[in-house]
Design goal:
With 134 residues, this protein is an all-alpha fold. The chain has helices at 2-27, 32-58, 62-82, 86-104, 110-118, 120-132. The chain starts with a helix and ends with a helix.
């Protein structure tokens, strides 16, 4: 239950970071276009992180990955509060995205894992595609 609560908090934090980036950067004297680029950096980093942490989570390391993701997300957020300059803001958003991607990645459903082990999913896919194809 704690992992679910932490994951939800990270999701909310990530959404707050994305929506608050433009306000933060405007206060620092930067424009909205930079905020848009940094939101893109965040999103790409999160998507790429999920490609790597998904298999690790599926191998039973869910808690470890989520806790590491939370730590990276917090580190990226703390970095953005103390740095100045576009390159360092970009690095902080990259860290935030990687942390967000790791902390909010969910494991594969148990049913899917069991289907893959015994080949049932392949049989179901073949049967369904045969019936649906013209």
């Amino acid at each position: 239950m704690l992992i679910i609560a932490l994951t939800f908090c990270c999701f909310v934090m990530g959404q707050g970071l994305n929506s608050g980036t433009s306000v933060f950067l405007a206060g620092q004297g930067y424009g909205a276009s930079l905020a848009g680029v940094l939101v893109l950096v965040f999103s790409i980093a999160a998507a790429l992180a999920r490609l790597f942490v998904g298999p690790v989570i599926d191998n039973g390391k869910c808690s470890l990955v989520i806790i590491a993701g939370i730590a990276i997300l917090i580190a990226g957020t703390a970095l953005s509060a103390v740095v100045q300059g576009i390159p360092l803001f970009t690095i902080s958003r990259l860290l935030q995205g990687v942390g967000f991607g790791a902390a909010t990645q969910q494991p594969r459903p148990p049913q899917q894992a069991s289907y893959r082990k015994n080949g049932s999913a392949k049989a179901l896919d073949t049967t369904a595609s045969d019936r649906l194809s013209p």
